[in-house]
UniProtKB/TrEMBL annotation:
InterPro entries: Chalcone/stilbene_synt_C, Chalcone/stilbene_synt_N, Polyketide_synthase_type-III, Thiolase-like. Residues 235-363 form the Chalcone/stilbene synthase C-terminal domain. This is Type III polyketide synthase. Belongs to the thiolase-like superfamily. Chalcone/stilbene synthases family. The keyword Manganese does not apply. The keyword Transferase applies. Residues 9-218 form the Chalcone/stilbene synthase N-terminal domain. Transmembrane segments: none annotated. Keywords: Transferase. Pfam families: Chal_sti_synt_C, Chal_sti_synt_N.
Length: 383
C-alpha cells in the first residue's frame, strides 16, 4: 500500500523592518536634485520611481533620508565620499542581527514553538556576509541547541527564501519530528549606487530592507492557521543567465536587471506551472514574489488572476518594496492575515519566486485555518 507523505506546514511567520521609512515621492525628489546636472537621468528617475508600484520602503541607513547634498549614496561628481563595500558590510553586520532576531522571535510566537524544539536553522541573505556567520550568531542569541543543524544560504538572490522553504520540507520528509527555523534578512538599500546610469537608478527605485522568518514542521492538534506545503519545483530557465546579474563592486554590490525579465517569465513560466499542477486546475491563492511591478502584472495576465488574488503581492510591494529573499514570507504573512480576517476555509494555492539564473522556485500551498480539526486536516490533505 502506498503511504501518503506526512503533513508538513509553515507553522508560524514573523516579519521585521528597520526604523527608517523611505517615502518614494520624497526620495525621487531628492534624487532628482542630485541629478540636476544630468536632466535626462533626473527625468527618467522620477518616472521609474513613480511607476514601479512602491510608495514606501524601509532602510537601516539614516543617511538615505538626508538631503541630496548630504546623502553619500546619491550620484555626485565624484565617488570619493560614497560608502565603500567595507563600510556597507560593517553596517550590514551591525544591523542584520537585531532585525533577524526580531523576525525569528515573532515566528516562534506565531507558531507557538519553543526554541528548544528547533532542530535545524536556515539563514538566508544575499546583501551581506561576515564570519562567524549569521547562523552562528542567531543560534547563540536565540539559545538554540549547540548541535542545531545550521545551513547558510548565501548570495542566491530573491528566490532563496522559497528555496529554503522547499529544502526544509525535504528535511521533514526524512525526520517528521524536526522543526526548522528559516530566517531571511536583506539590507538591499545598502547597495544603492552613486551613479546616474539607468541600471543603477532602476535598482534604487524599489528595493527595501527587512527580515522575515518562519517555522516549518508537522502541525499538531492545536495548530493555528498554517500553510501546508506539497512537493515543489526548482528549475533553471534556459538562456537567461545574463538577465539578472549581481556582482561585488567597490561601492557595494552592482545589480543589473534586464527589462526583458517580465516577458521571459511570461514565455517560460506557464509550462513550469503546468508541470507543477500536474493536470489540476489553477488554485485560488497566488503568493507571487513581487520582484517588480512588471512581474506581478505578467503573472496576473498569464493566469487571468483577479486583483484580489494579486493583492497580497502588490500590497507588500507598495508598503515595503522588494526585500529580496525575505519578501515571499511578507507576502504569505499578508495573505494569512487576509484569510484569517474573512474567516476563510481551506484553500489551495501556489507560491512563486524568481532569482538569478534565471531560477524559478515554485511550491504548492494549502491554507488550513485554525478551526479545522486534526481529523478534518488529515481528510482534506489526503482527499
Amino acid at each position: 500500500m502506498e503511504h501518503a507523505d506526512p503533513i508538513i506546514a509553515i507553522l508560524g511567520i514573523g516579519t521585521a523592518v528597520p526604523e527608517f521609512r523611505i517615502d518614494q515621492a520624497d526620495t525621487a525628489h531628492r534624487l532628482a536634485e542630485a541629478l540636476r546636472d544630468s536632466p535626462d537621468s533626473a527625468r527618467w528617475a522620477k518616472r521609474i520611481f513613480k511607476q514601479c508600484g512602491v510608495e514606501t520602503r524601509y532602510t537601516c541607513e539614516p543617511n538615505l533620508l538626508e538631503s541630496a547634498e548630504s546623502c553619500r549614496y546619491f550620484p555626485r561628481s565624484t565617488t570619493q565620499d560614497a560608502p565603500s563595500t567595507r563600510d556597507r558590510m560593517q553596517t550590514y553586520k551591525k544591523e542584520s542581527v537585531p532585525l533577524s532576531l526580531d523576525a525569528a522571535h515573532k515566528a516562534l510566537l506565531d507558531g507557538n514553538i519553543k526554541t528548544s524544539d528547533i532542530t535545524h536553522l536556515f539563514t538566508v541573505s544575499c546583501t551581506g556576509q561576515f564570519l562567524p556567520g549569521l547562523d552562528t550568531v542567531l543560534a547563540n542569541k536565540l539559545g538554540l541547541a549547540a548541535d542545531v543543524n545550521r545551513t547558510p544560504l548565501n548570495f542566491l538572490g530573491c528566490a532563496a527564501g522559497l528555496k529554503a522553504i522547499s529544502l526544509s520540507r525535504q528535511v521533514l520528509l526524512g525526520n517528521q519530528s524536526a522543526k526548522v527555523l528559516i530566517v531571511c534578512v536583506e539590507l538591499c538599500t545598502l547597495h544603492i549606487q552613486p551613479s546616474s546610469q539607468r541600471e543603477a537608478l532602476f535598482a534604487a527605485s524599489f528595493f527595501g530592507d527587512g527580515a522575515s522568518a518562519c517555522i516549518i514542521g508537522a502541525p499538531g492538534p492545536d495548530h493555528k492557521d498554517v500553510f501546508q506545503l506539497d512537493d515543489g519545483r526548482s528549475v533553471l530557465l534556459p538562456d537567461c543567465a545574463d538577465e539578472m546579474v549581481w556582482e561585488v563592486g567597490n561601492y557595494g554590490f552592482d545589480l543589473y536587471l534586464s527589462p526583458s525579465i517580465p516577458k521571459l517569465i511570461a514565455s517560460l513560466i506557464p509550462a513550469e506551472v503546468e508541470h507543477l499542477l500536474d493536470g489540476k486546475s489553477n488554485p485560488e491563492l497566488w503568493a507571487i514574489h513581487p520582484g517588480g511591478r512588471g512581474i506581478v502584472d505578467s503573472i496576473q495576465s498569464l493566469f487571468k488572476l483577479t486583483d484580489e488574488q494579486t493583492r497580497p503581492s502588490r500590497t507588500v510591494l507598495r508598503d515595503y518594496g522588494n526585500v529580496s529573499s525575505a519578501t515571499l514570507l511578507f507576502v504569505l504573512n499578508e495573505m494569512k492575515q487576509e484569510l484569517k480576517s474573512k474567516g476563510s476555509g481551506p484553500a489551495t494555492g501556489i507560491a512563486l519566486a524568481f532569482g538569478p539564473g534565471l531560477t524559478a522556485e515554485l511550491i504548492p500551498i494549502t491554507y488550513l485555518p485554525a478551526v479545522i480539526s486534526q481529523e478534518q486536516l488529515i481528510g482534506h490533505v489526503r482527499a
